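Now read these lines:
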Amino acid sequence: QLQASGGGLVQAGGSLRLSCATSGRTFSYYDIGWFRQTPGKERDFVAAISSIGGNTNYADSVKGRFTISRDNVANTVYLQMTSLKPEDTAVYYCAAAPSGRWWRKSQFEYNYWGQGTLVTVSS
């Protein structure tokens, strides 16, 4: 089970760090992705990281502003978000996919999902 946290209210230009934690012993076997969703819209890919952390993938809209990382000892993946914009406002979800899918951007590649954490960026 994945647990996303770290969301909140921040002003434009500010930063937040999201965390995705699990107690599962096979965490290091999975690629982890972050997606976001606003009401009435599809869930969009944000970033992903490979199971051992050597590869990352980002949506064009967040490249250079967001950084995904993981600590397999702590069973946690982080999404450091900087230079936040109002259009980054969404519910952010983390998800796990079998190793080897980090380069794909479809939510359907991911089998396990966390409950979401709300990020609100005010202008």
